[in-house]
Amino acid sequence: MTGAGMTGSGMTTSVNTELQELAESVFGDAASSDTGFDAGLWRTLEETGLARLTLPADAGGSEGTFEDAAVVLAAAGAHAARVPLVETDLLGGWLLHAAGVPLPDGPLTAVAGRLEVDGTTVRGELPRVPWARDSAGVAVLTGAHVVLLDPRAAGITEGTNLAEEPRDTVAVAGPAVAVVAAPDSVAAELRLRAALGRALLLAGAARGALAAGVRYAGERVQFGRPIGRFQAVQQQLALAAGEVAAASAAASAAARVAADVGFAAPATRLAVAAAKSRAGEAAGAVARIVHQVHGAIGFTREHDLRLWTTRLWAWREEDGSDAEWNTDLGATVLAAGPAGLWPLITG
Amino acid sequence: MTATLHRLPDLVPPPIELPPRTSALRAEVRAFLAEEQAAGLWTPRADVWLSGWDERFSRELGQRGWLGMTIPKEYGGHGASALDRYVVTEELLAAGAPVAAHWIADRQIGPTLLRFGTEEQRQRFLPGIARGEVYFGIGMSEPDAGSDLAAVRTRAERVDGGWELTGTKVWTSGAHHAHAFFALARSAPRDEQHRHAGLSQFIVLLDAPGVQIRPIPLLTGAHHFNEVVFDRVFVPDGMVLGEVGAGWKQVTSELAFERSGPERFLSTFPLLVALVGELAGTTGAEREIGGLVARLWTLRRMSLAVAGSLESGEAPELAAAVVKELGTRYENEVIDVARLLVAVPPDPGAESGFARLLADAVLHAPGFTLRGGTNEVLRGIVARGLGLR
Hints:
By secondary structure, chain A is α+β, with helices and mostly antiparallel strands.
């Protein structure tokens, strides 16, 4: 890799601080009110080794840990970065590499879906594929196969999520770039990786929204003083800060657990479920409060507050909503019974 | 869009993992608790750190080396890390074990004596605290001074060889059983420009002449709180805690320990266990149970992150306030979900089980968001941290 020495699992706190500063500066410089893929930012991410942070060197990666990814993704979320970072690094790149498929250069995306597979010919439709129109390859987990599609050879119907991020329908009927047997247990891991990546982005976006709320409360004058001087506003923003803290703590702790014990461990499944659910819950509360603080201006498209709040609303439903993960978690708890509850929590 | 994001303070320290050595300790504590419970020595209760006074149990923990864990060996402690103590503490609370007798002494008095106490004070009290035989209360609150400690009116007047205390303390947990408490008193006249100056802490023996202790029953009717009235109680110079006039600084320096511990989200955990017991084998409540567990898992991770930060010598006051604010609201949410999912009326007369735990939890709930600083005051601290005040 190039960049700041992001290697292996022996990462110390000081190196993570360096990584954090790098990420804040890269995403901060790219921040804008636009929508759509940010090609300039993507080039910077590739040059700094952040685009494929957690992938092994033989997949063009930087061999960073999930804790490193947590730092980078939280910064990406906070600055509303317009790049398929989770999709390339945590999902598509990982899935193709795990299946032994050489990785195409450029941004990737990944999806689990239903395709008919006949030799190297595939047929079917994949709804709501993130960033498909901008990707160099779509990695698909379908039944017992991992398939790599070239989006330029597929039919793409453009769609978006609430934040105007690409969520396209990919229709395919013809030869794939690659079709191989899916390794064991990739389905479960793909789902957990997607939820963890989304939880980290959510935590970052919640922080960005809170920062916007705090700044606005310090600038906007009503009744002769900044609204942030009113206790009622202070109490609301303090509640939002608590939600941001919970989302960040849950997402980064889940990344830590994944880094320590791997995705196959039951502790990671519980941690990721808790993190996605808690971050999703925080998303709604934070968005509601910062909009209330901003008044009517935040409710318009001309104001940048939407960059965070529409992402919070979109992402809380993606990769398993909080309701879905809570149901998953609750089923585990009820199966463990009263005596099993505390051991589950202490892992 | 403005390229630079408004700078926010760190709301929570980085996540930590407990050291592997703590697994054996946890297993040992868990086995001991299961044994005690099987022998019928106590029944799990809600809010045990306020209500579960059991001196036999505290002495038993002392004998096993699970009290005064972070106190150095020369004072009868075990020189263990705060994270080892964390593991023992959370196991005790999660089991609903009766920990109230030693709670304040173990959590607050020990560390404070180590930090501010004289050698003589340490020798006198710490070994008994570590054995689970010496119990303390906290004398901060007064009839007109709750979260606003600068309003403390108890007077300490200089006399020959010490101080004379006159005033009234309220909400003193366990004063009727405890041996001593730390009393915050005004040792210099109040100065409106410096409201927190002139306060000092004193170690007051609760059987000293001039001390009167009157019960203030809880909603449950149980006797945990007391009013403690001083009528010219003599406190010798040797029992002044720390520096005269530095009471405010001393009191607030301990708040990060007090606010972020597992007792701020586990008061109703035994009720959650009973709820899972009621629902095990049924379907339809997975989402609600999962929601509670996701929040609990997160709170524990936040609390551990603060514990890790304290262990490395920092004082994450803001993060501690956030944990307490979220944690104590969570304790109330457990009650709400439990009563919506299980149609069993709370029964304060039941020996044990869901109905009894629900009754105790409901009647104790108002205290969760009051003690140790109200949630409104805590949110004020967070707002200050955000730069709004």
